[in-house]
Fold these 2 entries.
Entry 1:
Amino acid sequence: MDKFVITGGNRLTGEVSISGAKNAAIAIIPAVILSEGVCRIENVPNITDVTAITRMLYDLGAEIRSVNKSTLEIDPRPIRSYVASYELARHMRASYYLLGALLGRFSHAVVTMPGGCDFGVRPIDQHLKGFSALGASYKLESGMVDVYCDELVGNNIYMDVVTVGATVNTMLAAVRAKGTTVIENAAKEPHIVDLANFLNTMGADVRGAGTDVIKIKGVEHLHGCTYSIIPDQIEAGTYMAAAAATGGDVLVKNVIPKHLESISAKLEEMGVEVEEYDDAVRVRRTRPLNKCNIKTMPHPGFPTDMQPQIAVLLSIAKGTSIINEGIWDNRFRYVEELKRMGAQISVDGKVAVVEGVEHLTAAPVKATDLRAGAAMLIAAMCASGVSSVEDIQHIERGYEDVEGKFRALGADIRRVQEQEKPSVAQAV
Ligand code: EPZ
């Protein structure tokens, strides 16, 4: 696997343009399965998670044309199978969106159980609760989820926890069900609203997305359409954090500032200047960072997917900060890597106590997952000396052209082919 070699100390300055939202794209692309016509999806991020989900549709029989690097035309009509490829699906958690989409179209879906993840157990009980409420039965055997029904019928569903995935999957199964479905305690993330807008562009009747009650009137047919995906809230937040960490001055373009409010608020609390424009934010830091406390929450709270990145800022802020991870059981695995760079962080379950230090120092570190990897890049950019970040395949799952975008801002970053590690036999 390749790695990034980064020489820290450069202030990031200039402009960066944000790509389409990963977590919207990997819900909208499976949703195309429900259409009876060709869908043209624009502002698709060029990232490996999108490549993977698109390949799964292709394997099911969809015809897919890459119009340009950020536009796909997908014709789902040739799809005949409701069984997703085990080999492809097992590598990617969001493959479980194929369950809702295939169930909605074929009244049957077979998809591999989603893998665990680097930050704890990732159950699907609420997804199954949604499907069951709509009249489906399911079997979990030999690592597969098999969901089937005679007919999907609308119903009321109260989610036990706020869950993006189960909200998405229930929406996908409900849009062509007979009758009305009401999802209560629904997730309100921007990508939920984006999916609802896409479904409605195909002719669905989804109301209330972005609130905790989503009402879906089932329709018989959904037609092809053209749709442009919203900008990525977390990619934007990552570049905002990087600008702040390096004491830089960056214009983050092609964003929806409202989606960034909780991130901007926390950066301002830390003494960072954030200026909002119609579709951009300018992030500048000219003085030392102040400590602050973070509690990750479902949207519109502070996003858990920004937790590792903000921890880097807190590790070089003045004073002691507390991070409460409110969503995942174990999303602090990156802390051990950050401590190799001199961060002073102690973790107890879902709480981390961060003692700010003067500065971080370079070290060889690993990307333990997607957002942790992005945090390691930020840490390396503000550390003194030359760091390496390994396992960058995690980062490329969700960040388009991360090397090019950071280099354009003045970061000293280069991708290096990771030499195959000699086996012990070879080494002796
Ligand atoms: C989505 O994951 C995102 N992934 C994650 O982003 C993000 O961290 C998460 O939402 C929270 O915002 C995608 O959108 C592809 P959840 P998801 O269902 O849907 C519990 C990234 O970095 N839960 O909202 O899997 C669960 O254990 C990724 O882009 C159940 O108990 O998350 C967790 O504690 C990482 N039962 C909480 O709900 C269920 O059936 C939120 O999970 C489902 C979830």
Entry 2:
Amino acid sequence: MDCEADAFYRQLPKVELHAHLNGSVSVQTMEKLICRKPDLNIEPSMTAIHSGRRTLDQCFQVFKVIHQLVDSEEDILMVAKDVIKEFAADGVKYLELRSTPREETNTGLTKRRYVETVIEAIRQCKNEEVDIDVRFLVAVDRRNGTDVAMETVKLAEDMMLATDGLVVGLDLSGDPTVGHGRDLLPALERAKNSGMKLALHLSEVPSQCEESELLLNLPPHRIGHGTFLHPEVGGSQSLVDKVVKNSIPLELCLTSNVKGQTVPCYSKHHFQYWYQRGHPVVICTDDKGVFCTELSQEYQLAASTFGLAPEAMWRLSQQAIDCTFAPEGLKQQLKQTWTQLQRQALRE
Ligand code: IMP
Ligand code: ZN
């Protein structure tokens, strides 16, 4: 990559809104985890997709390997702190991390301790004056069905109250070919009624139109991917109309979609469809560890693929602030930071 462009995109202040904790673990952190657990015989090549493309199913196999490596409070604390610091080093000023609470009988980890440990990592980074604001979304894995979803929402509600607003919402993710959103509607409705924001993976694969129609009626506050919403790729005008009418921002993850083969190549990414219409879109990484990318690299790829000038990229990163689940005061602060940094960049 071009060094000058590289520096520009690293310095550009950015907002990351779609980052799964265990998919964001870097090679360096992975090495530390592998050293802690030599008996598992896990090779670094099993935890990331360096080159080439995989099926979505193969991508989900990678998460299973990573989950074996991250199974204690100690691991989660290290992983979360490393991930937060790496995003900060890449110029991310505001991060919404998401993760699926897991219990592990081997290590005595409970779902509550899981969330508390991520929150502890966020607090420690704040105390260490890492230059980034972090919030947390509790993730519901769609494969686990109605009861687990409801249990997760209750845990998220408790944590939202206990953490003074560090938990801001709920994510719906997991293998899109498994389970149906209709079974999760009661849990999602409850979350929304208790003041949580909803960021839902929607239409990540074709043939989810019916589910997307249903979930868009909530409506969610943000959409992850939304790859197959528009009619040109088998979605429908009615889906697009719902997204546009409610002005629901899309979290777009270019490399994730190309490497996971839901999009044929960068130039055919649905970024173009929504950006051209002036719809709010936010560039994100999804799983920077698994897909071997960084947010600065995703910005650079979007700019070079779609011919966007630096000013347009400044606008894109600044507009992402309004799509965050941050309280109004923090949004204003972030906007000031952007203005100051942009003035500074122009003087240089
Ligand atoms: P974790 O929730 O921190 O353990 O992060 C890994 C989990 O995030 C995976 O097991 C999936 O449930 C979810 N995930 C990561 N990437 C994707 C994606 O592209 N689509 C749907 N779910 C995903
Ligand atoms: Zn995702």
